[in-house]
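Hello Y.,

Per our agreement to keep a running log of every chain we model this quarter, I'm adding this entry. I've kept the format consistent with earlier entries: sequence first, then predicted structure.
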Amino acid sequence: MENEQLKTCQSSVTQEDRESALVAIKKYANIYAYFPEEFKGDREIALAAVTAYGAMFEYCPEELKGDREIALTAVTNYELVYRHLPEKLKGDREIALAAVTEIGSVYRYLSEKLKSDREIALTAVTENGLVYRYLSEEFKRDREFALAVVNKVGLVFRYLPGELMGDREIALTAVVKCGYLYTYLSEEFRRDREIALAAVTSNECVYMYLSKKLKGDREIILAFAKGKTE
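Predicted structure for the entry above:
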């Protein structure tokens, strides 16, 4: 029945009109919002519109909002689309994963079931580190999850709970990804030569925050010099 409806929508638009509409969308995606209903109901035109600008999903007729390809295309380029999906598509794991892969902040709008999906959560935080704040306490206190996240997005280290910030392997991983995170470390870790060397190797500016003893370390000096010459 759904396919019949789509065919009916498409049949009311001539190929010449369709081509003109597609050219117009390439020039100005928002123009779809002002199209007559028969144009909005044409699947090819609607798909082109949401491909150019996902927000145009709002102006699609209801039967096209339930079209999986159109929905999938829209959610991967405009954050707010996910909230307006039909309920059956909101529960679609593939759509949710595709959405957070491109726009991590979509994670906020997912169902609790999808939020508890480890791959979706990790993918969302990898795309946008700030999403870490929306994770469940279970994920936030999961050492392996934290290590995986920091290995991809070092800056997330700043949002970890104290016990994980105090984990040496996680701290070392963090400064390898982002040397400046050295300034967020405990005094114990800031005195750690291996961590200091990794931080300076990642960002030579960290050298200024080292202790006098570490500033005099030959290998650290060489790492600093190499960074300044590259």
